[in-house]
Amino acid sequence: MGDRTLYIHIGCHKTGTTSIQQALVHNKQALKSRGMQFFYSNYRTGENRAPELHSWMGYDHEEGLVPCGMRFSDPEKLAEDLSQLVNDVVISSENFSFLFDRGEIERLKKALSRRFSSIKVICYIRRQDQHIVSHHQEGSKLFRQAEYDLFGHSTLAIPDHEPKHDLYLDYHQRLSMWGDAFGDENLIIKVFDRSRLKNGDVVADFFDTMGLVDNFQTIDEKNTSLSFLEAKIGHIVNASDVQHKRWMVGLLTPRMGVSEKLLPSRNEATEFYSHYIESNRRLNQRFGISEEAAVFSNNFDMYPEEQVDAWSEMSANEAIRKIIEAVDDVYGGLTIDEMRDAAIALESVEPMVGLKLMRMAHKLRPEGAFIRRKLNEYQRRMEEGADENTE
User: Fold this and answer.
1) CA–CA gap between residue 26 and residue 92 (Å, rounded)
2) Whole-angstrom Cα distance, residue 94 to residue 12?
3) Are residues 198 and 282 in the same domain?
4) What is the CATH number of the domain that holds 174?
5) Strands in the chain per DSSP E
6) pLDDT, tens digit, for every residue of 64-118?
7) Are 127 and 207 within one domain?
8) How many Cα neighbours within 13 Å face the side chain of 375?
9) Domain assignment present for 61
10) DSSP annotation of 343
11) Residue 89: helix, strand or coil by DSSP?
């Protein structure tokens, strides 16, 4: 086993985790000089790709994230890979916060404890109203299935409270499972509040927590928030049945420009937070995190008095105008006749591209007899080719 320490950084999401991971990669030599190493090899390939362990965790997409959460693909393999390193080791992934099953955490502990004499679990927590405003916004981005399952696609800053939110936001329930497995004395729970972080910086605070008080370089903040229009349009696209969501998001959201953040009213934020006050008190009683009885400050001044996260005539008109401008920017210089002629030019060498162009021309000129005839011809060729391939 050896006298080595493993640091497991488990998030939470939206607490500067990406910045911490990037800083760990950036400060490889500083870590090495202190006898530490950041492990972030991809589970399937073994490559050091993105600085996280997302590839080691997943869930049944038919079942979804709720209620069982993510599962560790192979904790024994992870433990074995970590045991090959000679230094103390740091691993990090906010997806550890999606482990909702006590058995998964205990399975991880069993595998790791045979290789390390000491295991420390580090977690930054954010007041629940602030957390969900930021984390729900992630669901407006592409490929955030976990956020879709947990928080849905409300275009408001805070979705209506549901019991499934407790799987993540009841910190007492969730972190107690880690305490039960690894020991309360081995949990380091920090409040993600810039007034409480070292130098107001989560990266400096994290390195200080591990005893690396000097000889490291901080980095610019990563994964920052979206604007009002970006978040709303993203939620609408992801909640829709359109087939080409990647294309739609790529077309629209970059053109939404700078606008106010999507924030709830003060009363809405206070009401949502009220679901977790008692749970936070129990968390603090168990782990001794803060001088505040319920861990967090009761200051809600960062929110406006009145609701500003609903569509107004002005914001709706602005979004529609930007969507029209986006369509004009991409398609304004391409006429129906040019689509038709390009389809004909490509029908022999790139028949699928020709078919797509002719479909576009037909949608824009449905009464065009020649376009309709060519479209039927292309579709017939495709069907005949498919039939030949199945014989």
Assistant:
1) 14
2) 5
3) yes
4) 3.40.50.300
5) 5-9, 36-38, 57-58, 71-72, 88-92, 118-125, 187-191
6) 899 999 999 999 999 999 999 999 999 999 999 999 999 999 999 999 999 999 9
7) yes
8) 18
9) yes
10) H
11) strand
